[in-house]
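INTERNAL TRANSFER SHEET
From: sequence group
To: structure group
Subject: Peroxynitrite isomerase

Please process the attached sequence and return the structure record in the designated field. Keep the field labels unchanged so the import script can parse them.
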Amino acid sequence: MRDTQAFFPDSRAVGVGPEPHPWITPALPLLGVWRGSGTGGYGTLSEDFSYEQEITFSHDGRPFLRYEARAWLTDREGRPDRPSGRESGWWRVVADGYLEAVVAHPIGIATTYVGRISGNEIEMTSRDMVVTPLAKEVTASRRRLTLCGDELTFVTEVQAVGQPLQQHLSARLRRLPG
Ligand code: HEM
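Return from structure group:
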């Protein structure tokens, strides 16, 4: 039996695979696979950490993006140390760059976001964060992505474990060729 990808392929680039839905036009510069590095910290942590991250945005012709991100910590020499944050979800882009997303994390958290794509800037604020009984208490998150050609910066703020909303992650990624 042929797989679904053969009939209804996901596209990671304009001009390849299905035509993008017109509503996702403001999000088209995100399509592709992005790889880069970042630093993170939090009020409860004794020291900051470094990580690398790969993010993929694709679409199947409907007005949403498939979003997949995985990160791994790196040591002082920049070598991969251990797997870290992963998340995947769906970014629904509707008229005028209005964005709403649902993102799931393996640490027992599901987040809905509302936001806006304005030119090269994307702002997203959590609307609801739902946590499983054993998950850390996380109550809010805000994200800002800035696109500059093939470069993407991605900053995440988190409000959790009694701490005020504060920056947890900041990464700079480049779009991989192809
Ligand atoms: C690139 C993705 C991410 C990376 C690399 C990352 C990395 C880390 C690291 C290294 C720690 C310290 C504990 C440990 O060693 O595991 C940590 C703690 C934490 N992270 Fe993340 N994280 C990511 C995404 C997220 C996201 C999306 C959230 C929330 C939605 C989150 C919330 C937290 C919280 C609440 C803590 C614990 C603070 C505490 O209990 O002291 N992280 N993260």
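Handover comment: The first strand starts at residue 32 and ends at 40. The two ends are 28 Å apart (CA to CA).
Transfer complete.
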